[in-house]
Amino acid sequence: MRFFRFTDTKKNIQDLVLETRNYVGLQKQVYTQEFSHRLSQLLSSLAVLAIGILSGGIVLLFFSFFVAYLIGQYTGSTALGFGCITVVLVLALVIIWLNRMNWICAPIARLVAEALSNGQDEYDTTLRTKADESKNRISQLTQHLVGPNSSTEQGAENITRLASGGMLLYRGFRIGLALVSAYRLVFGKKRSK
Q1: Looking at residue 121, what is its pLDDT?
Q2: What are phi and psi of 91, to 5 degrees?
Q3: How far is CA 105 from CA 91, 96, 98, 99, in A?
Q4: In the chain, N or C terminus with fewer CB closer than 10 Å?
Q5: Is 127:29 a contact under the CB 8 Å cutoff?
Q6: Which of the two residues, 46 and 193, has the higher pLDDT score?
Q7: Is the distance from CB of 148 to CB of 29 less than 8 angstroms?
Q8: Cα end-to-end distance, the chain, whole Å
Q9: Is the pLDDT of residue 32 over 90?
């Protein structure tokens, strides 16, 4: 049985409330930092991907003009050169469309999953460390508040507290017996002898 001094209990509860507020604030900062880090990583990856696709498209456009004019000079007909390049580009688009799941959707899904995964990140982990320390402090305060008393107290004080607890149990037992006998008197059930 644990007995508290009121001022110690009040101080422990105040410390627990303050530490819980601190922990919630730190957790909010940690989640905000993780979210902003992952979001910036995802957006930068998508921006690089978009720039790469646009650059590749421009290079492909100019290369196709070059090849079309080259075929046109070789065959003597510029229209035939552009026709050949058009057929090649349409075939390439059909092949890309048929393999879009493997070549486009799966890599983008993998990119997003890696950006949002719970892997080890390079950002500053001091907030996470502070939040873990605060969580440990809350555990210690809670254990101190409701756990068994580990401090050594005066022997006479312990004996007095134990005697007081025993007297309270005895009084509770006597009141319970009085209530049972009153219940039997009112409702007429007598004890069989």
Answers
A1: 56
A2: -60, -40
A3: 20, 11, 12, 9
A4: C
A5: yes
A6: 46
A7: no
A8: 39
A9: no
| CA 109 to chain CA centroid, nearest Å | 21
What is residue 192's DSSP assignment? Answer: P
CA distance 29 to 131: 9
> Residues 173, 167: contact at Cβ < 8 Å?
no
Please report where in the chains the tokens 């456009």 appear, as a residue: 61
pTM of the complete model beyond 0.90: no
Amino acid at 150: S
Average pLDDT, the chain: 81
The position carrying tokens 């009084």 is 171
| Surface-to-core class of residue 44, CB atoms within 10 Å of its CB (0-12 exposed, 13-18 middle, 19+ buried) | exposed
Domain assignments of the chain as residue spans, ordered by start: 6-151, 155-193
Phi-psi region of 154 (alpha: psi -120 to 50; beta: other; left: phi over 0): beta
Separation of alpha carbons 17 and 48, rounded Å: 46
- The span from the CA of 51 to the CA of 166, in Å, is 80
pLDDT digits (tens, 9 = 90+) for 92-135: 999 999 998 998 888 888 877 777 776 555 556 787 888 888 88
